Each structure stands twice: as structure tokens, then as C-alpha cells.
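Sample entry (170 residues):
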Amino acid sequence: MKIETARLVITEFTPDMAKDVHLNSLDEDNRRFVPDEVFETEEEAGEAIAFLISRYSGTEGPLTYPVLTKAGGENIGYVQMVPLGDGAWEIGYHIAKQYTGKGYATEAVQAFLPVMAGRIGIREVLGICLRDNAASKHVLIKCGFEPVFEGTGEYQGERREIFRGIWKKA
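Predicted structure, serialized as C-alpha cells:
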């Protein structure tokens, strides 16, 4: 798979991306908001990449793809679709700290959503983040996610204050 935008390329992982994935995962926002996606070593990142590559041939997920800059080919993060059960799917994304504030997450999510919804055969996608993750909440709203819930809910196996939005394919 390859999706191109004005500034980005969303493509498939390759094993040689382990170092970038490891380094991108270490920033404080990733540790705070998605600690299960922090890879303390390059080897851990390599194992995760191998698993993610193995998922590309199906639609059971997670379906996770690196986000690269078009200009220099830097690996700046990822975008993903994660099954929640009962046919529901959630969008996930992370842009490394040194690349945030430039609209990359919004650009990647806007390009990724319709392509992946079509591939999976779904018309709705959930967006869930911690309520105090203002940047992710902003990306979801900017990408057309309608707010459906704010309050205490399930987030990574714990009861937390969350924001939940829903995106519907046109």
C-alpha cells in the first residue's frame, strides 16, 4: 500500500525502519498517552514491525503504516486502524515530537481514513483519546470526527477521562 499527500507518504513497514520506530516512540507524549507503543530498544521495535508486517495480508488488524516525509523520506510516525470487536474500528496515530505542530497528523489521518475504510469495508471509524490530549482531540475534530462522548470510559484497560468521536464515510 502507498498513499501520497502533498507532503507525506504512507507506506508499509520494512525491517530496516526499527531504529526510527524505536526513536520515534520514546518521546514524552507517547509515554504519557500510548505507553504500550513505546519501544525501549531497537530490537523491541523490530519485533513489533515484524508482527505488523505479518498483518498486511489480511484485514483483521491492527493495520499500521509508517508516515514518511515526501521531501526527505524521514520516518516521522505512523497511522493505524485497530479492530475493537463487533465490527468496530479505531484510528490511531503518532507523529514524533520533533515533527508535531506542522499538520502532519491531520494530513495523514485525512488521507488514510477513506482508503482504509474502503479496504476494510466499513463506513464508520472511532477516534478515542485521553480528554487532556488536546493535540489528538484537535486532529480528530479537524478530520471530521463528530464528538459522541466525553467523560470516564475505558482506555487501554483502565477507567480514564476520554474523548470519543466518530467519523462516517461520505
